[in-house]
Amino acid sequence: MQSSPRILPPPNSDHRRQVFWQVWLPLVVFVIVFLVLAGLAVSLTSRGEEIAEQWAALSVVIVIVPTCLGGIFTFMFLAIGIFLSDKAIRGLPGLTYKIQLFFRRFSAITRYYADRFVSPIIKINGKCAGLTSLFKPKRTTGKNN
Prior knowledge:
Elements: H1 13-47, H2 50-135
């Protein structure tokens, strides 16, 4: 059972006014301010004004400082990671030795109980193999018979 598509009511005048004031006006103002500043920067640099050099220096600082801070934070995280890795690696030999001893003990205990569990079966199979070999004819192999 399909439902018919829902028809949305046309936007009212309040919505249109809100869209204009909240979306279009700020966007247009930002674009105009950006274009004015770009034109001002071009005109000041083309005439060789001293204030353009000051603004250029400030712009370079504004671009370089976040990059340097990002690099410093990256270096700090790297140094902390190296330090923690070093601490972990120094602690590993003792820890891995303890783990190795645990698994050796576990292996010995497992082997002991496994041998005890299957020893009756091995004895029975051995006795059966001995009895069957007594009643089988001896086979000769090789050339020197």
